[in-house]
Write a structure and sequence with these properties.
By secondary structure, the protein is an alpha/beta fold. It folds into 2 domains: 5-127 and 197-272, 3-Layer(aba) Sandwich (Rossmann fold), CATH 3.40.50.1820; 130-192. The protein is 45% helix and 18% strand. It is built from 12 helices and 8 strands. The chain has helices spanning 35-41, 71-84, 97-108, 133-144, 147-156, 158-166, 168-178, 183-194, 202-206, 225-234, 250-266, 268-272; strands spanning 5-9, 12-20, 23-28, 48-54, 90-95, 113-119, 212-216, 238-242. Strands 1-2-4-3-5-6-7-8 form an 8-stranded mixed β-sheet, with helices on both faces. The two termini are 30 Å apart.
Length: 276
């Protein structure tokens, strides 16, 4: 894995990972994720230069003083890094929250985003979707109890037991929020982001004309397959790939996601967007 470099955005120091050569791709992690999550998902082979910015409070990036946290804030941070690295036009993509950031950039900066890759989207067109209620619950517990008690209360709650029974992979990820070194401070990120939305209406998404890859899977309470299908049905130039759920077979899941992204980026349609 390439070493991180720092980028100052206001008073926040952002960790930036820049690797590979070729097709410019800005690819972002999910809420609570980092470069390691992206590295599991993004294909290692192929002629692409990938930039990933660890969002405020994630990975090695600092929280900074600006509040509230928002998807727009994180998206503009990533765009500032892309501009600094010379990405005039690029493929924007990401996992979960990263997919929302990519969608935000495509709608707000259409001159910059040439194509989209939306992996397991958790948002569609509204703020604070019901599927993110478990994350808001975790945030509230972290703000009102000690970490140990907060974890115990979540695991024994109705919403925690339901997620554990129906989506064990999601449950493990949610418990991971309690184990973060900065868990209490990070609760503000969880609360603000899970209550936010990408700021893109369905009509605006339908007006997008960029080539788009949407990837989704079943057995995922935080990233419902319905969200992915909604984007595939709404964005005119979208293709949809359903992959094996992580809850069923993690190794196969990541292999299928990487293959879908690699195939999409290798198409003549995408390559022609950057041909001189």
């Amino acid at each position: 894995m390439a070493a991180a470099t720092g980028f100052m955005r206001g008073d926040a120091r952002l960790a930036v990972f820049d690797s590979g050569q070729g097709l410019p791709v800005l690819f972002q992690h999910g809420l609570g994720g980092d470069e390691a999550q992206v590295a599991q998902t993004f294909p290692t082979l192929g002629a692409a230069r990938r930039i990933t910015v660890e969002c405020r409070g994630h990975g090695a990036s600092s929280l900074g003083d600006a509040r509230p946290f928002s998807l727009g804030m994180f998206a503009e941070d990533a765009l500032a890094v892309a501009t600094d690295r010379g990405f005039d036009r690029f493929v924007a993509g990401g996992i979960s929250m990263g997919a929302a950031l990519a969608l935000h950039l495509a709608q707000r900066h259409p001159d910059r985003v040439a194509a989209l890759v939306l992996v397991r989207p958790a948002w569609t067109f509204t703020a604070a979707p019901d599927n993110l209620e478990p994350i808001r619950t975790v945030a509230a517990l972290l703000r009102s109890h000690s970490i140990g008690e907060a974890r115990e209360r979540f695991a024994g709650s109705e919403i925690g037991m339901r997620i554990c029974a129906n989506a064990p992979d999601n449950f493990a990820s949610l418990l991971g929020y309690f184990d973060r070194p900065n868990a209490v401070a990070f609760a503000s990120v969880l609360a603000d982001i899970a209550a936010d939305g990408p700021g893109v209406t369905q009509a605006a998404a339908a007006a997008l004309t960029v080539p788009t890859l949407v990837i989704g899977n079943e057995k995922d309470a935080i990233h419902p397959l319905a969200c992915a299908r909604t984007f595939a049905d709404t964005i005119a130039n979208a293709s949809f790939v359903e992959v094996t759920p992580k809850a069923s077979d993690k190794e196969r899941h990541f292999a299928e996601v990487q293959d879908a992204i690699a195939t999409f980026l290798a198409t003549k349609t995408i390559r022609s967007l950057f041909s001189s």
